[in-house]
Amino acid sequence: MTQLRRLGATDLKIAPLVLGGNVFGWTADRDASFAVLDAFVAGGGTMIDTADVYSAWVPGHKGGESEAMIGEWLKVSGKRDSVLLATKVGMLPGEGGEKLAPARIAAACDASLKRLGTDRIDLYFAHQDDEATPQDAALEAFGKLVDAGKVRVIGASNFHAARLKSANDAASAASLPRYHVLQPEYNLVSREKFEGELQDYCVAENIGVVTYYGLASGFLTGKYRSREDLSKSVRGGRMGDLLAGKGKAVLAAMDAVAAETGATLAQVALAWLMAQPGVTAPIASATSAKQIEELLPAMDLTLNEAQLAQLDAAGA
């Protein structure tokens, strides 16, 4: 049985892989979404991550599609008490203003709760920093949600080290809730946004870290190995940049580790993240139960020191 990990200093314990909900209601329809969610929970998964803005970028969508799909699944499956829900505020404008305006946080939370069909959000993220809103004002708004029982724990996504530190300093000074969890972009080919000052701060302050883009939008599955492969996806342009950089070296190191362990490249990429200092769990999304069944074994894959060092060197 997969060992659960405590999320920073909170009382939340999660499996070391979080399911990304960005695809629900977008590239995964109702049947596919339900199949993915069922397979994830059946395989020992415990936390689902979404956001109010998913998937407002799709023509005809307005945001909230992912939360609504998850809410429908929760109602049908009856599994609300079997999972932890994480969602976000700050990228979808609406009632109360934009970003982290206090009135926006309050209104967005109520809207997310309604779409999810639940009375509580286990982990509520500030989706991005908002320099126009005083940090103590945003934290006070989050604090009211915690006091009301609507939110259990708050976190920050896409924050730089200085801003995360100043927010938590403001929280301490005013006896407000602090950001106990960070959600940064982090993977074997994108390390600069987290490693260094931000990672060191999270380790020192026992801030739980759940990372996104763990598979670098599919690059780390080995799907893109040549210029000819770039036409396989609308993301081909970004993959070309990775191939031109350290991508080939990273894939070669991953191939070697995969051969030694018998694991797939996706499993190796996620297991590397799970082994990094401060990281509680990476987030990965899937559009089919078959994809989930490939990702789940990463939770029980332990890479040895030589393998971790080989991967580190290739992606440095």
What does this structure look like?
The protein is globular, with a radius of gyration of 19 Å. The strands form 2 sheets. Strands 3-4-5-6-7-8-9-10 form an 8-stranded parallel barrel. It has a two-stranded antiparallel sheet with strand order 1-2. The chain is of the alpha/beta class and 316 residues long. The protein has helices at 30-42, 65-77, 102-116, 135-147, 161-174, 197-205, 236-261, 265-274, 289-295, 305-315, and strands at residues 5-6, 13-14, 18-20, 47-49, 84-89, 121-126, 151-157, 181-183, 208-211, 279-284.
Shape: globular
SSE pattern, N- to C-terminal: EEEHEHEHEHEHEHEHHEHH
Helical content class: 40-55%
Question: What about the largest sheet?
Answer: 8 strands, parallel, barrel
Number of strands: 10
Straight-line N-to-C gap? 33 Å
Contiguous low-pLDDT stretches (5 residues minimum) are none
SS field, number of helical segments: 10
